[in-house]
């Protein structure tokens, strides 16, 4: 059904997945990144259709019911997230390097559904240099309340324990190195020159 392998990028909250992804895209704009749908409120500066597809609860549930998502999950017990299926299939069918950045639950769901959907998947885990560094990054970004930070850190402990479930682990000690390491994975999977 598809030519390319879907690169699934995951890791704990505040590990810097988005920052690594931004650096990767700045260096390699030929990569297509799936835009997830969510029911959470936009953060300052986020745009609908660019950062996420922001949906109401009713819209999201209808999409789930109609099979329009590759995966869905409730993240941190607060909001629904999901990956629209058709754009992923369309880009893979054209062998466009395709990247999906999702949480641990989503990565597991994609892996589970890959065979039934005819998708070939490579899972990549972005890890922090240490838990203390992860905590510093989460608090430093200042986008969550103290209660939300505590909940995210508890979730992060569980997510870090899942590192061995992934095909590739990249430590985000520096953004440049992590982005380069991620590009090497993509280049190898798509037969591109590094």
From TrEMBL:
Sorted UniProt keywords: ATP-binding, Cytoplasm, Kinase, Nucleotide-binding, Transferase
Location relative to the cell? Cytoplasm
At which positions is ATP bound? 11-18
Domain Guanylate kinase-like spans what residues? 4-187
**One family name in Pfam for this protein:** Guanylate_kin
What the entry lists under HAMAP family is as follows: Guanylate_kinase
Quote the NCBIfam families the UniProt record gives.
guanyl_kin
Recorded protein name is Guanylate kinase
Native species: Bifidobacterium angulatum DSM 20098 = JCM 7096
Q: What is the lineage of its organism?
A: Bacteria, Bacillati, Actinomycetota, Actinomycetes, Bifidobacteriales
Which gene specifies this protein's sequence?
A: gmk
């Amino acid at each position: 059904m598809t030519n390319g392998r879907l690169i699934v990028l995951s890791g704990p909250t505040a590990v810097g997945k988005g920052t690594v992804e931004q650096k990767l895209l700045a260096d390699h704009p030929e990569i297509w990144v799936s835009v997830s749908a969510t029911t959470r409120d936009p953060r300052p500066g986020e745009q609908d259709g660019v950062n996420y597809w922001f949906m109401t609860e009713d819209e999201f549930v209808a999409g789930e019911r109609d099979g329009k998502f590759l995966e869905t999950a409730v993240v941190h017990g607060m909001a629904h997230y999901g990956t629209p299926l058709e754009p992923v299939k369309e880009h893979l069918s054209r062998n466009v390097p395709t990247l999906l950045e999702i949480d641990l639950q989503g990565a597991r769901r994609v892996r589970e559904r890959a065979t039934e959907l005819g998708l070939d998947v490579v899972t990549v885990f972005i890890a922090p240099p240490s838990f203390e560094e992860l905590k510093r990054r989460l608090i430093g970004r200042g986008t969550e309340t103290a209660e939300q930070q505590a909940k995210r850190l508890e979730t992060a402990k569980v997510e870090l324990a899942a590192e061995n479930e992934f095909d590739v682990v990249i430590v985000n000690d520096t953004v440049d190195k992590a982005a380069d390491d991620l590009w090497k994975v993509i280049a190898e999977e798509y037969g591109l020159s590094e």
